[in-house]
Amino acid sequence: MPEPVEPVQQASGEGNRLPPRGVPVFTGINRIGLWSLYIKEVRRFLKVQTQTIWAPAVTTLLFLVIFTVALGREGREVLGVPFATFVAPGLIVMGMMQNSFANSSFTLLGGKIQGTIIDLLMPPLSDGELMAGIVGAAVTRAAMVGGAVALAMAFYPGVDLAAPHLWAIVWFGLMGAVMLALMGLLTSIWAEKFDHNAAVTNFIVAPLSLLSGTFYVIDNLAPAFQAISRANPFFYVISGFRYGFLGQSDIGNTDLAVSHAALGLLAFNLVLAFLVYRVLRSGWKLKD
């Protein structure tokens, strides 16, 4: 009986053998697969945009209303600007970060609970492409929420959203969204039920967001609490983002000081991305 012959693929008039089983056919980046995953994730949150885009914008605007009414009376100023103008940038980027986390933290967890996780793990996507697609969609949602919040605040009395340093707005907004998207993806890998996700949101993300100088300058704190604030990466995102609008912040009033914070956030995100990639590649709590 003749020996089975491996299938032959004809390409450019030459016979090229298919790779052995288990060896990926795709080389380089699977652009179609990556784009398909990204679009799937974007369409998922856009289908319920009232909940994922507009509701967070309204909630963040309510924060502005409450705090300006409670603390902004009698023309109170912070860093030489009205309180509403001071607090608006922090609220915008806080909303961006929280929604970036919410988006990426649901993807794999939802698949685990609904039994559709195989639809994400089975396609010919590398771990890096899977991570990039999920993080990219989360950053897109963060940008949409930030745009909606900024649009609403632009019409709020007493808020001036001039942008003397556009690069800082873009960079720190991007770094904050990526950081929380990576944290959300790591949470999604670890969590086994929605309670686990909610615990991280309520006991880690929310406190770090609210206690990072969103509503105050850390110079007003005791030295010990100033040190704690400076150890919080959220503080640098919010202060750097505020610098883009006001030209001054808690981390300094010069491009050099803010640039150091920008590079520090980049380094932090690279380390976090490497950690998430290694956990995703290990298959922990996904393929066990």
TrEMBL record:
The chain crosses the membrane at residues 53-71, 78-97, 130-156, 168-191, 203-222, 234-251, 257-280. It is found in: Cell inner membrane; Membrane. Keywords: Cell membrane, Membrane, Transmembrane, Transmembrane helix, Transport. Residues 47-283 form the ABC transmembrane type-2 domain. The keyword RNA-binding does not apply. It is a multi-pass membrane protein. Pfam families: ABC2_membrane. It comes from the Bacteria. Its main location: membrane. InterPro entries: ABC-2_transport_permease, ABC2_TM, ABC2_TM_bact-type, ABC_2_transport. The keyword Acetylation does not apply. Belongs to the ABC-2 integral membrane protein family. This is Transport permease protein.
